[in-house]
Write a structure and sequence with these properties.
Layout: H1 2-19, E1 32-38, E2 41-42, E3 47-52, E4 58-61, E5 67-69, E6 82-89, E7 128-131, E8 136-143
Parallel strand pairs: 1-8
Antiparallel strand pairs: 1-2, 1-5, 3-4, 3-6, 6-7
């Protein structure tokens, strides 16, 4: 049940990023990009979220090389300057959210996603990042399967 809750929260966060919460006006964002590695290998298709202690989050999805670029409020590129808890998780297929008879089940993660669950929950992740006023490029988020 907790796993389902975390995935729903992640999906809502991504939806807010895609839909935007504000428009062109909003906080000043600086560019942030990087790469996610699991045991030294690029992680494709993972959702990356930078969650501040207050204010809007920023997020993005990794490409086949594990690279991501953050998008913030109003679907604008970047993140607000500050310190963040970082979550990295597997997206889920909304079509897997309920069975044919209407009973709910935990959504299935894509079969190629191998990010350990601890990184997708902001209460268990040990990943953090600081975004300076000039932005951040080349950030490497190193995860381990152990």
């Amino acid at each position: 049940m907790c796993n389902l809750f975390v995935r729903v929260v992640m999906l809502l966060g991504v939806c807010l990023i895609v839909v935007g919460c504000g428009g062109a006006e909003g906080p000043t964002l600086v560019p942030v990009s990087g790469k996610v590695l699991l045991d030294g290998e690029p992680v494709a298709g993972a959702l990356v979220q930078f969650i501040p202690s207050s204010g809007p989050l920023s997020g993005g999805q990794t490409n086949d090389q594990g690279e991501f670029t953050l998008t913030g409020p109003g679907n604008r590129p970047g993140a607000i300057v500050g310190s963040y808890i970082v979550t990295v998780g597997c997206p889920f297929d909304p079509s897997q959210g309920s069975s044919a008879d209407g009973s709910t089940q935990a959504p299935a993660a894509p079969s190629n996603c191998n990010v350990p669950f601890k990184y997708s929950d902001m209460s268990t992740t040990d990943v953090s990042a600081d975004v300076p006023s000039e932005g951040k490029s080349g950030l490497v988020i190193e995860l381990t399967s152990k």
